[in-house]
Amino acid sequence: MADVGEFALIARINAGRPLSPGVLLGPGDDAAVVAAPTGRFVVTTDMLVQDRHFRLDWSSAVDIGRKAIAQNAADVVAMGARPSAFVVGLGCPSETSAEFVTGLADGMWAEIGRSGGSIAGGDMVRSPVVTISVTAFGDPYREPIPRSGARPGDVVAVAGRLGWSGAGFAVLSAGLDAAALAGVDAGLIAEALATHRVPQPPYDAVLELPGDAPITALTDVSDGLLADLGHIAESSRVAIDLDAAALRDPALSPLADALGADPLDWILAGGEDHAFAATFAGNADLPAGWVPIGRVVEGAGVTLDGTPRIGPTGWESFA
After folding, report:
1. 242 near 289, Cβ under 8 Å?
2. Which partner for 150 in 17, 58, 236, 265 could form a disulfide, CB atoms 3.0-4.6 Å apart?
């Protein structure tokens, strides 16, 4: 970075990148101009800090770039909006290679290919460790879907897979490889690692919902299923009871057995799955891609088969 310089690198990573229709004026001016076709927009921001949210010895620059966009795009989609623009702030040491920064940009644009939108601008500064801040904008295509709309009798459902990111994290944390996990299919290990490094939010499961879909509350599963459903329960002033049998994923069992872990812990509290969890009116059929996992009931909190879960519930930044 010190040799290439900020502005030359900005020009390099922006060269030839297409702008989405939602970005009327992109990188190169003092600020971007972003369209708001409905007269309003959804906005969210998230940060990733080296050795807190990612490790350079665990993930490539492309992986980290994709993850940075995915976790923000998922938040936009979870509000009932289509991602339209991203503003990216990057802090890194001066000895950081230009190739690493180019890899970050490549990863971000690769994920934008899945989510929609484009990078509208950003900033670069020198910092002690790699730090990435993404602000994402989205165009609402329906009324916002807040966490506060769940009602007793609603069905709780999920789109996407749960527990696989937690499984990958467990493998990496144990410092193990395929040879050490003898008897576990190498493809299973690779899939868990890939899912942790690059989450795959099922954007279309939400974006393709019809406008009259009976969805009452929605969140993306970033901190852990128990934690994120807990936010819905608290905001809606209801309780949520989950069905353990509906949540179990037999494909995770061989890896959990090898690590001496309970795969249900990964599913309930692993975090960074970036699946979507929602509540739907209880008398309605679930849309394609959504799997029932529980019910909204009277009360408070989240239970599993009627019993409070003892142990971690998910990610907490200052825990």
Report:
1. no
2. 236
